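hiii, so i know i said id send this last week but things got crazy w the move. better late than never?? heres the sequnce for the chain we talked about at the cafe, plus the structure i predicted for it. fair warning i was half asleep when i ran it
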Amino acid sequence: MLAAEIRERIMVPWGHGDCIDLAGVTCEGPLDLAGLDLTGVDFSRASFPDGIDASCARFLGVSWFGATQFGGEARFERTVFTNDARFERACFADAANFGQAEFRGIARFDGARLSGGARFDGIACYGNFSLQGAEILGRASFRKAEWLGGLWCEDVRLPEGADFTETQVHGRLWLRRALAGNTPLPDTAFALSYGYTYN
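okay and structure toks below
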């Protein structure tokens, strides 16, 4: 499906429960959603060989990207996800940028593979944020991120030097078998943690 066709289908007014089914679609050309208000969409198992730019967009319904393939850069900086954002088992071949994104529901990156590095600087997540079994290669930065619904990192694989400067975790911090490089990720990596820590 052409990128322009996808854009036209999802930049429609959202009503409660609305979700456009684009599961398994392959996008021809880079998908430009920057700055748009978008209805609920299911991109599960979709493929974006040339990447996606959803910077400053607002996903007003569900935003499902489970097992989605991103061949080019994935730009979600300053994006607002008003409902659950699901990226479990997604594969990012290029850089993934979620800087200053706002997750108002849960954010799930379970089993995701981010091969080109990832930026989560300054994000705010109101539900649980999960990286269980995820792997980030290259640079990973979470500087000034705030997780208001807790942070789940069981079995995550992060690069050595992953940056958690000035981060805040409210609620449960789960670090069992979490690694940064070849060493366990310590709770001391986080500037402030207000709940229980499990490691």
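btw The chain has one domain: 3-198. thought thatd interest u
miss u guys!!
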